[in-house]
Every structure is written in C-alpha cells, then in structure tokens.
Amino acid sequence: MQFSAVVILLVATFAATRSEVFFEEKFTDDSWKDSWIYSKHPGKEFGKFVRTAGKFFNDEEADKGLQTSEDARFYALSTKFTPFSNKDKPLVVQFSVKHEQNIDCGGGYLKVFDCSLEEKDMHGESPYLIMFGPDICGPGTKKVHVIFSYNGKNHLINKEIRCKDDVYTHFYTLIVQPDNTYQVLIDNEKVESGVLEEDWDFLPPKKIKDPEAKKPEDWDERATIPDPDDKKPEDWDKPEHIPDPDATKPDDWDEEMDGEWEPPMIDNPEYKGEWAPKQIDNPNYKGVWKHPEIDNPEYTPDENLYLREEVCAVGLDLWQVKSGTIFDNFLITDDLTYAAEAAETVKKTQAGEKKQKEEQDEEERKKVEAEAKAAKPEEDDEDEDDEDEPSIPGEAEEDDGHDEL
Hints:
Blueprint: H1 2-17, E1 21-25, H2 32-35, E2 37-38, E3 49-52, E4 65-68, E5 73-84, E6 91-99, E7 105-107, E8 110-113, E9 130-137, E10 141-150, E11 153-156, E12 169-176, E13 181-186, E14 189-195, H3 196-199, E15 207-209, E16 224-226, E17 241-243, H4 255-258, E18 265-267, E19 279-281, E20 293-295, E21 311-320, E22 325-333, H5 336-344, H6 346-388
Antiparallel strand pairs: 1-22, 2-5, 3-4, 4-22, 5-21, 6-12, 6-22, 7-9, 8-9, 8-21, 9-10, 10-11, 12-13, 13-14, 15-20, 16-19, 17-18
Subcellular location: Endoplasmic reticulum lumen
Signal peptide: 1-19
Pfam families: Calreticulin
C-alpha cells in the first residue's frame, strides 16, 4: 500500500513538472490557410502572405515559411491555440525571421495574445500580452522589441538590444522564468538577460525622495573658493591689443582723402588676461547634498510579474515598406531543451543559404560580364568598318550631310 502511494506521488509530480509544447508552426504545407486568419479591420490596406522558402535556402521544403509579398502594406495575420498559463513554469516564445529583401524599414516581430483577440479585427491597437522580435527602419532603428503588457499598459524594455540586419534566417528566443528573470537569445546565443522588475517600469520605484527634506540654507557645496587674501598685482592691467610700434604711415597717405592715419593693432605681449584670485580649499565644504530617500508608499512588490494567466494566440501585426520577410518556426513552450534544439538548426540553414546565395551572385556577375562583353565587339566592329573602308582615287566622296569648309 505504501509503495503504491509513492508511485502515485511520483507520477503526479512528473505530470505536474513535465514540459509541454503549447504551439508550434513550421508551415510544412498549405494547411496554415485554414488555421491562420487575416484581419479585415477597416481603414487598412493589408498585404498577403505567401508560403515559400525564398530565393535562396538550405532545404527548399523544410525552409518554407510565410513571406510578405506586397510593398508598403500593413500585415495582420493570427492564429489561436488551446489556452494555457505559464504559472510556476518557464515561458519560451521563439520564431525565425529572414529579411531576404535586405529590409530598409519594417517590422519583423510577433505578438502574443489572450483569448479575447478578435482575429478578423486585429489591428495595431489590439491589446496583447507580449510583443517580441526585430524592428528595422533606416540606420537608426535596428533593435529587438521586448514589450510586456502589465495592468493594461504596454511596457518597453529599458535596454537596447540590436537585431540582425542581414538577409539570412535568424532565430529569436524570449525566455521568461517564474523567478521573474528573463533571457533574450539570437541564434541560440544569449544577447541580453536580467530581472523583469529592473529592466521594465512595471512598478513604481521602491524609493522616492523625501518630500519633507530640504537642503539647509547654509549647506556649502563649493569644493574650492577664491583666496580672500589674494590681491591683483598693480601692474596686471594691460590692454589686450596695442598699436604696432613698427608700423609707419604710407608715403601716399592723403589725410584729406583717407582720414587721419592710425597704426594697425597687434596683440600685446604684456597682456595677462582677466585677473582672478587663486582657488583654495573651502573650509566650509560639506560635499554635494543628497536628497534623502524614503520607502515609496505606492510601491507594492509583485512576485508574479512573469505570469500570463491565459496565453491563447499569436499574430503578425506589422508594417513593411519593402516586402520579402519570411516568418517561420513559431514555437511557444515551457521546454527550454526542445526550444534550444529547434534553434540550433539555424546554423545549418544559414550555411546552406549563404552557399546558394554566393552561387547565385556569382552566376549573376558572370551574366552581367558576358552581356557587357557581347555588346562591346559589335560597337568595335562598327567603328573598324567606318575607319577601314578604302577610298577610290579620283572618285568623288558621297555627301554625308555635313558641309566641310
């Protein structure tokens, strides 16, 4: 009987702690069209996604994802899954982004929602739980967004995380732990980490300046003061500029025409500048006054900053000037090992993409060179024909339409 109880307890413990994959999408076929919903929110001209591996890839079938296909468009596409809570367990949000169009301005991020999302009306103001992923616009904006909704307000991370801006596939991973810590990984390598409360302004500050405290009127913050015993020398004051003693009035100077002659001014070698007494240590110096702080009565700690009670949907809600981004490998789980193994495939993917792109670039280079070379002999032949055509002595040259003088 005791043995059975132990077995039941172990099974229950295992069931409570085992990892789960809550959502995964690799776009292996066209079934995504049945589960992902386009928004029809009024007033927006939305672009369409197409399933493709793009122009260069490692494995054409395995690397297929959803690609933005129209320039200067908003994109709004989402899907729902069985809702779950990340209470007392990690939350991993991961996906891949490939800006093969060499994006100049556009979003590459996803949003995570609760079940209240109306998919056919999703738009930029739709409430979300998490916004995560790269955003690029010109040379000044190349960052990874990590935004959490807390108490109805969206909070941006207080750190700058740079995203990848090349044309190859990259995995972006956000890990939120139940101890209120987080990590951001790109291609399975940590690029940022920390504590939620410290890196987002979810809560009021723990300490505030004491509103009752004021700096004493006699508080002296001057580290040095002018020496009261220092006196300016009597011969100190000299003009900064003096007439040039070597200058002479020109022989042709006419005072009636040119006015009274004055020698030009030069720097005075005896000029010492503006006098100021030397500085000495201030005997009354008390240091820089620091405003005393007190506990903030509005601060209340929250051990559940990490918690999202109902995770139910994921969507792409973004704008792109130049289309061509491919989104793939969506994964929401509490299994860190599974997520790491999935992201590790990016190395092989990138190697294949780079190899194929280099081959394509080389073919294009050769093609351009061949076309240029093919066009050049024709021009040379025409020039040679004009130059080498013999003339018959005594025969009049044909009128070429030009009058020769």
